[in-house]
Every structure is written in C-alpha cells, then in structure tokens.
Amino acid sequence: MDQFYELQQVAREYSESSFFNKIELDKNELQILITTLEDEHCIVKVCENGWYTNKSAEYFPTFESLANHISPQFQQQWFAKVNERLHAI
C-alpha cells in the first residue's frame, strides 16, 4: 500500500469542496490534518488495517466511512452529493 498516494488522493479530492473547514496533507508525517465542519480537529492516517484518527483506535475501510463517523455534517453533505449525482444519471 502506498500511504502517500492514498492520502494525496483524499486531500486532493476534498480540498476544493465544502466537506471540511480545512484539509491539509502533511507529507512529512504521512497524515492529513482535518478541521471538520463542526470545528473539530483531527489527524487522519491510513495503513493496511484501514483509515484511523488520532482520537480513536477504530479502523475504517474507506476514508468516507471514517469521515461519516467523525463529522455528521460531512455525512449530510456526502449523501446529498451522492444523491445529486444519481439523479443526474
């Protein structure tokens, strides 16, 4: 698994969106610094076991599942975007 690639993809995908107040890739520490829409700060990392934060020992299979867990407003925005794309089909 290429941790840097995974982190870079997520940071790029969500950097120009309204899903977070702030999302920043820390290349040196191989982590993403996030400020949620609820103004919670956390550090996100990825490994073979999945995605996790500095605030929990729980692993998630995808970044989106982790983000849905840590931010109710992310979850609302994400589901709205999925529905929007489905209706466009």
UniProtKB/TrEMBL annotation:
It comes from Ogataea haglerorum. Residues 22-88 form the GSKIP domain. The lineage of its organism: Eukaryota, Fungi, Dikarya, Ascomycota, Saccharomycotina. InterPro entries: GSKIP_dom, GSKIP_dom_sf. Gene3D superfamilies: Hypothetical protein (hspc210). It comes from the Eukaryota. This is GSKIP domain-containing protein.
